[in-house]
Amino acid sequence: MRIKINAVAAATAMVLGCFSTAANANLVITEYIEGSSNNKAVEVSNMGGSAIDLDANAYKLILFGNGADASKPGNTETLTGTLAPGKSLVFHNSGAADAFKVGNASTVTYFNGDDALVLTKDDVVIDRFGKRGEDPGTAWTDPSDANFSTANKTLRRKASVTTGDTVAEADFPGTNNQWLVFDIDTADGLGCSGEGACSSEATPGLLLLTEYIEGSSNNKAIEISNVGGSAIDLDANVYKLTLFGNGADASNPGNSETLTGTLDPGKSLVFHNSGAADAFKVGNASTVTFFNGDDALVLTKDDVVIDRFGKRGEDPGSAWTDPNDANFSTANKTLRRKASVTAGDTIAEADFPGTNNQWAVFDIDTADGLGCAGEGTCDGSVTPPEPPLPETGPCTGCETLTPVADPTTFNAEIYYSDIVSGEFANAEELKNALSAIIAKEHKQLTYKQVWSTLTYADQDPNDDKKVIEIYTGTSISKYDNQTSGSGVGKWNREHVWAKSHGFPSESQWGYTDAHHLRPSDPGINTARSNNDFGACKDTGEEVLFNGVGTGNYLDKATDCWEPRDEVKGDVARMIMYMDTRYQGTDTATTQMPDLVAVDRLTTADEDSAPLIGTLCTLYAWNQLDAVDTYEQNRNNQVYKYQGNRNPFIDRPELVQQVYGAVCGDDPNPVLEVEGDIVTPESVTEGAAYTLDASAIKAGEAVTLTYKWEQMVAEEKILVGNEAILSLTAPMVKADETLNFTLTISDGKLETTKDVSLNVINVPLTLNVEFAGTTKVTEGDKTSITATVTGAPEGTSYSWKQVSGDIALFTATGLTLDVTSPSVNINQVLVFELTASVDGESFSQSVSIEVLNAEDNGWTKPDGAGSLGGFITLLLPLIWLRRRQG
After folding, report:
1. At what angle do helices 568-581 and 427-440 cross, to 10 degrees?
2. What is the reported pTM?
3. Tens digits of per-residue pLDDT, 448-466?
4. What one-character DSSP code corresponds to residue 96?
5. Which Pfam families is this protein grouped with (predicted)?
């Protein structure tokens, strides 16, 4: 099984994400003006929360005129520089009126109402305006909005749109029109994203280091400012200012300061040295100011660098200086960030101050700018930011909660990035990956904090003073929570996954996990008890509330509870969340067992087991009752205070990906077949063989097709498309295994089978004949010639002497010429012929007997003779031929 999150699923997630997301760094076309004469302009904005380095990729805005398709791009503008969050680039027609001349003149604005614009990143579409490849005539219009037209109008992207429209050939503006219409020649929105005029728009909050003072003695201070247009909740993330002294690297942080509270636009936080003069004692004393001119400061958000001062990991000696500015020094100076800087310096190990120095220099012990951003002095009206007002306790005896996450900036694409484009061998691998994602930022709530969380998560959309009970649907005052005594007219906390099924202790994370805790009438909660969920309407009795049926059914004989139709999907997705969140992988932290949703009703003996049913009934309920806005808002509110999310609400398609296969709705179905492939156990190299799949059937009268592939190195090569594959085994140097994959298809579904075949190497025997005189007198010469029958093409030969007194010899190919040495007594010389081909070499030897010459007066005895002429030796040679791949 291979699970891959496909493009349709990803697109679905992007649409659902619009309910609660703001992209981290998303480039979007936010305004289009097609006015009278040459009054034409287009605006591109960064709708995310971090700066975009436009030079790091090829960002282009391309005009496609008069129905031109993707192969015929027109005028093009390449985007450059850095675009801070909330900032915009504008391109205007050079002949436009002055009001439209915002940004830069560009020929990409040579459009009329019937031309399309496409925004790309590295040639991939990230947004579009109009429909590429279509000429609508005069303009694109919207049948649902008579005022909408791409001609003679100003159009602004709705503020809710934070990600681009990536299908350039789709109908435009489509069924979900993302554009607001303004009168012809309206220009007051150019230069800022949003639906209103620029004067009313606020950019996102942006935290920067804005002043650094390293003065005499202990006159040291550092200022951090919000230079954006909206407040920053410093408690929603972990913001830290950390000192790295004397060249310390990232692994050796020094003193640090955690930022807290809310920092309004234009406001500043100041930390000073406790020993500084009074003029420097703005804000709070902090040990993070124990710096000299050679120490670095790094500002982080959730451990990610968002700004820095100095170069982390470097000790410059006494100070960092600037060769282009003799006045600049990080010692004995006051430095203020230039007002033009709108993005943090996020590379803490880069040279400092770099080629583009962002700091204005002031004399030592200058303190009149502390407490306000900018290059000038503060006028005295700047006061430290007020701490956030505490929230009123939301219910009886409930405590105020501090948010740990911001749902308005949640980005589903980033949060689920590990699975959006991932591939998983099976559903369990995908489920494990999801579990890791939703465990990462999970903050354990106390059981008391659950009360407060539910007042936000289950708030009545029509009355913010009430919550809605899960099983009755009743709207009840938040302050009617049952803290003690009778539960009549009260609401309590229902564990949808019954806590007795695996986590009876309040210290266990599942006990206080708000993703499955819901407000409930205490009497109905008691009736539900710890029963499993199942389809028991026909066998159980309807549960009453104040004498009226609730739509919930209880079968006491089987301990089965069937909730009302309106929340069946909610229940299913809560159970699936618990089954996925608590995989038993972080037990040391959560004290939780592996929770398992089983496809049956559990027994009384299993009441304390970490099991709950009935999985496939829940799966059906998920399809019956789809995710709605109430559930999405609930997911956001739990995320705000608990820090993690229910993936089956954010991405409903994951239900099928994780649970579909076990519930008969496999997202990646395969063809079911019977029968096996008939294969030989092994085959000898060079021999013909067959792999026979003709016995495989997929039911009566089902026609199958076949695709045989062989794995060669790391590639699959097609080798046949019939049921029977006939091949010849290759020649091999040693026994080798061949691997094949057979894909069988009925035209709709397919399955694969793997086959392995062992090819046996068989040594080849060759005949070698040696001819020549093999008995000589010392000092004589002889020649030996070898003849090899059937040697492979390309074989080379070499000779060497392996024993006997050293003789002079030469060898050419198969011929050996030897001059025998002087010997005291008769002896045998042995020479070895080595044949080599394709890295393989094999040897055979031949012997030459050398006779000692006769002394004077010595007579050869009768009967003595000599071997003369040719002696032919027939010798076998084992030849291992190189594998013929």
Report:
1. 90
2. 0.44
3. 999 999 999 999 999 999 9
4. S
5. Endonuclease_1, LTD
